[in-house]
Write a structure and sequence with these properties.
GO molecular function, one term: sequence-specific DNA binding
Oligomer: single chain
Largest sheet: 6 strands, mixed
Protein name: Transcriptional regulator GcvA
Family: Belongs to the LysR transcriptional regulatory family.
InterPro entries: LysR-type_TF_proteobact-type, LysR_HTH_N, LysR_subst-bd, WH-like_DNA-bd_sf, WH_DNA-bd_sf
CATH class of the largest domain: Alpha Beta
Number of strands: 13
Keywords: DNA-binding, Transcription, Transcription regulation
Order of helices and strands: HHHEEHEHEEEEEHEHEHEEEHH
Shape: elongated
C-alpha cells in the first residue's frame, strides 16, 4: 500500500510509508548554494568543489526534474520562476534537516568534553595523563584535538583550549597555568658521546631549528655573539624537534615542559646551566558560559592540581 498521510492507529504497522524517489542530497545542497548566490563559481567556492562539478550537478538535477532551474546568459546564470520557488522549498527543507541534526547532537554534547591543544603538548604532557581524568569521570566522553591554530569558540564545538601564548584573548575566560624556559638538549650519544662542555664548543655542530623558537636569544644569554642559524633541519612541531634530538641528529632548543619525560628517561640530556624564559605561557581558555558547565568544571578541577605537581617537578630543571 502506498500512502502519503500520517500513520493511523487503525492501520497495520506493517504497512509503511513509501516516498517518491528524491534527488540526491548532494545535488540539492549544490542547487541551494547556486540559487542563493545565483553564481556557479561562488557556489563552487563555498562547497570547495570546482565550477564544473557544480554545473554538472545542476544539469543532472534539471534532467531529473524535467525542467530548467536556471537561465544561462553567457557566463551569468539566473533562476527561473520555478527554480526560485523550488530553491525556497529546498532551502527550508535543508534548514529543517540541519535543525534536527543540531537538536539530536545537543544531548550528546553535554557528555562530550572536547579539548584543543598544540600537538606537542598533547603528545608530551596531556595524553600520558588524561587517563586519570577519564577514570575519575567516566560519565564524560573525552575528545582531544591537536592543532596549532587558535580555536574559534563561536564556530567550533570545542569546550576548552590549552594554548601557549600571550593570554590576550578578549571576551574569553583565561587562566595562566605554566611558565616555561628554553635550554639546549641532545642525545647522550650525540657526537659519539663527546658532548660540548661549554656553549662555545657547539661551533660547527648541527643545531636543530624549530619554527618560532629562535636560537639567538639563548646565544646572547650564553655570552655568544652568533647569528641565528639558517641551515640545518627545520621542524614546525616541537615534539618532532625533540624526537630528532633524541635520535642524535643534533642539538635542540626545547621548552622544559616538553623535555621533562625524555630528560627523566635519559633519552636526552641538558647542556649547560643557561636557560631563557619562554615568551609564551600556557593558558586554560574557554568561554565564560562553558566555564560554568559540569564537564569543564570537572576538567579544570583535575587539571590545576596536576599542573601544580608538574610545576614542582620542573623546578629541578629550571
Amino acid at each position: 500500500m502506498v500512502w502519503s498521510g500520517a500513520w493511523h492507529p487503525d492501520e497495520p504497522r506493517s504497512w509503511k510509508r513509501e516516498f517518491p524517489r528524491l534527488p540526491a542530497l548532494a545535488a540539492l545542497r549544490t542547487f541551494e548554494a547556486a540559487a542563493r548566490h545565483e553564481s556557479f563559481s561562488r557556489a563552487a567556492a563555498e562547497l570547495f568543489v570546482t565550477h564544473g562539478a557544480v554545473s554538472h550537478q545542476i544539469r543532472a538535477l534539471e534532467e531529473e526534474l524535467g525542467q530548467p532551474l536556471f537561465e544561462r546568459r553567457g557566463k551569468r546564470v539566473m533562476l527561473t520562476a520555478n527554480g526560485r520557488l523550488y530553491a525556497e522549498r529546498v532551502r527550508d527543507a535543508l534548514l529543517q534537516i540541519a535543525d534536527a541534526t543540531r537538536a539530536l547532537q545537543a544531548g550528546n554534547r553535554e557528555k562530550r568534553l572536547t579539548i584543543s591543544t598544540m600537538p606537542s603538548f598533547a603528545a608530551r604532557w596531556l595524553t600520558p595523563r588524561i587517563g586519570s581524568f577519564i577514570e575519575q569521570h567516566p560519565e564524560f566522553d573525552v575528545e582531544l584535538l591537536s592543532s596549532n591554530s587558535l580555536v574559534d569558540f563561536a564556530s567550533e564545538e570545542v569546550d576548552v583550549a590549552l594554548r601557549m601564548g600571550s593570554g590576550q584573548y578578549p571576551g574569553l575566560y583565561v587562566e595562566r597555568l605554566l611558565d616555561d624556559v628554553f635550554f639546549p638538549v641532545c642525545s647522550p650519544n650525540f657526537n659519539g658521546g663527546r658532548l660540548p662542555e661549554q656553549p662555545a664548543h657547539m661551533a660547527g655542530m648541527p643545531l636543530l631549528r624549530g619554527e618560532g623558537d629562535p636560537w639567538k636569544p639563548w646565544f646572547e644569554a650564553a655570552g655568544l655573539t652568533w647569528a641565528e642559524p639558517t641551515k640545518g633541519l627545520m621542524m614546525q612541531d616541537s615534539s618532532l624537534l625533540l624526537q630528532a634530538a633524541a635520535e642524535g641528529q643534533g642539538i635542540a632548543l626545547i621548552r622544559s615542559s616538553l623535555a621533562y619525560n625524555d630528560l627523566l628517561s635519559g633519552r636526552v640530556v641538558r647542556l649547560f646551566d643557561v636557560s631563557i624564559p619562554c615568551p609564551w605561557l600556557l593558558h586554560f581558555v574557554c568561554t565564560h558560559a562553558s566555564l560554568e558547565t559540569p564537564k569543564v568544571q570537572a576538567f579544570r578541577q583535575w587539571l590545576l592540581p596536576e599542573m601544580e605537581r608538574f610545576r614542582n617537578i620542573l623546578s629541578q630543571w629550571t
